[in-house]
Amino acid sequence: MKDYVKVFNSDDYAEVCLYNSDQKVFEIGEKMNEINEYAYMNGYNWEAFLNCYLAKKEPALLEGMRTDPEADMYVAYYDFTSENEQKAKRVGEIIVSLIENEEELYQFLRDNGDEIEWD
């Protein structure tokens, strides 16, 4: 994984964290805000964006997922099971793919921004 995403297990949870204060993620967030004025990319709006993205692309990943975003990070977690551990890894992979292929992320935002429940 990249420095801006961590996937790990705690005693009870399989977790994935996106650190939106990372320089690359921050710059992508600024571009997203230029595309859509509501897309001020704090942790809460990353939650809104990713919820919409996952609902359209891989809805099974939302099953059992809980989130706990903060201003400077997005956190998603599942109760720990081997299946949920794989889900958390997949969410991390999706986030990395979106950040590393930012044009795909921007196009999704252009196409779906009005459907996203922004903070």
Describe this structure in words.
The protein is an alpha+beta fold and 119 residues long. Helices cover 49% and strands 18% of the residues. It has helices at 23-35, 43-57, 82-100, 102-112; strands spanning 5-9, 13-19, 66-67, 73-79. Strands 1-2-4-3 form a 4-stranded antiparallel sheet. The chain is globular and about 40 Å long. The chain starts with a strand and ends in a 7-residue tail after the last helix. The model has no long low-confidence stretch (mean pLDDT 96).
Brief characterization of the structure:
This protein has 119 residues and is α+β, with helices and mostly antiparallel strands. The chain has helices at 23-35, 43-57, 82-100, 102-112; strands at residues 5-9, 13-19, 66-67, 73-79.
Features:
alpha+beta, 4 helices
Topology:
Elements: E1 5-9, E2 13-19, H1 23-35, H2 43-57, E3 66-67, E4 73-79, H3 82-100, H4 102-112
Following the backbone from N to C, one meets helices and strands in this order, namely: EEHHEEHH
**What is the share of helical residues?**
40-55%
- What's the pLDDT, averaged over the residues? 96
The structural class is alpha+beta
The counted number of beta strands is 4
Q: Identify the overall geometry.
A: globular
